[in-house]
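From the pipeline queue, job 12 of 40. The input is one protein chain; the requested action is below.

Action: predict structure.
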Amino acid sequence: MENKGNIDTKVKLSTLWIVVMVNMIYADIFSILVELVNKDTLNLPGDVKLIMAIAAIVTNIPILMIYFSRVLQYKLNRLLNIIAGFLTIIYVVGGGDLAPHYIIVGTIEVILLLIIIINSWKWKE
């Protein structure tokens, strides 16, 4: 059977989540580098431990979606990709910065997340 470029939706979604996750990692690395070069102090509102705990939870959404996109059954998979996509967009935009590197990476992340949501929405069993 000839492959006409059609990629299984589960594989496509999982791969998109991998790309989103790698972008998120690089956005954080770039932000740390900018912080170190500028020798600014991080002005995080509230308790740093609580903020990092919340960030750890929210950051695990795309990490877990890499796996869940491949193994969950159609109905739950589709719904979870849509919800996780929206939650991750809120995280990317809400936790964003106006630094040029973040605008570039964040824009790419949001576009990829919209592609995930659209692919999930249009996904037929």
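Job complete. The chain has four helices and no strands.
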